[in-house]
Amino acid sequence: MTPNTNQTLGEFIIEHEKAFKYTSGELSRLINSIRLAAKVVNHEVNKAGLVDITGKAGDTNIQGEDQQKLDVYANNRFIETLINREIVCGIASEENDDYITIQGQNKAHDNKYVVLMDPLDGSSNIDVNVSVGTIFSIYRRKSPIGEPVEIDDFLQPGNQQVAAGYIIYGTSTMLVYTTGHGVNGFTLNPAIGTYYLSHPDMKFPDDGNIYSINEGNYVHFPQGVKDYIKYCQEECEEENRPYTSRYIGSLVSDFHRNMIKGGIYMYPNTAKAKNGKLRLLYECNPMAFIAEQAGGEASDGYQRILDINPTELHQRVPFFCGSKKMVEKAEEFMAKAK
Ligand code: AHG
Ligand code: MN
Ligand code: MN
Ligand code: MN
Question: Which annotated residues bind substrate (predicted)?
Fold first, then answer.
């Protein structure tokens, strides 16, 4: 392996700490804890098929989904790592019914931040050796420091996020994150357990030619989405259409590819799922924050994802996210068909 002289994630965090709004070092330590948990989960994901970590765990989560063993494993590792380091005052996860209150040793709830996460995204891909991910979202608490966290600390609109990111366990493992100053991607060198800055200042191409949607649900899509899909498939040489259809079924992986190549990811409401499938707090808000920081856009078809006021922890929303021009075009079709 050629030696990598790029900046490491550790060095990057220290150098950029000064740019953070609050410079107590707490956010840096929190991101450090996440990168550590991600390494542990990565190690386990890589062994899937060798150890007893594939398949269903036997339970369903509050969303009514079958939990996979790796969903449970990743959830436990992230929660344990964050609790042991007493680095956050609360955690909400796709896999937990309710939020977790973390009290420090002196029961003072001294930390500023709450973390919301999708510990393992793309569960259905684990057993077939296809990329999965982890998504995280960080907010500053609203309730007073010293008091236990409250539900309102978690139900903040996405535009209040302090940081957000994802880990993609792919052909290589990457951690991609933003603290509101652009998006940077770090690749893990598994031999030495260090992440290197491999993708500085990531940007969505303004336009693209990839559309990602589960077309198996076509008959249940709203008319605006059907019309937009037709537009994607129509011949138009100047506009590089027909577009290419690519759908992995892991939001993180579909998003990551589209951010690098230019594209749009859509999970609309359907006749069966009136708010779509993806969770606002664990999936849409963090990905929307990253998308916007990379010059892309994220919408529920009509409005900016980051401006939605959440009312429930496990709330779902329709999601259209990717290259700016493509999301705007999809919104145009949605508005026309309304
Ligand atoms: P999760 O594995 O965290 O429950 O998320 C799965 C999500 C998302 O990653 C993916 O894009 C989408 O569900 C796929 O859904 P369909 O199988 O309905 O297309
Ligand atoms: Mn799930
Ligand atoms: Mn998910
Ligand atoms: Mn998940």
Answer: 121-124, 214, 247, 277
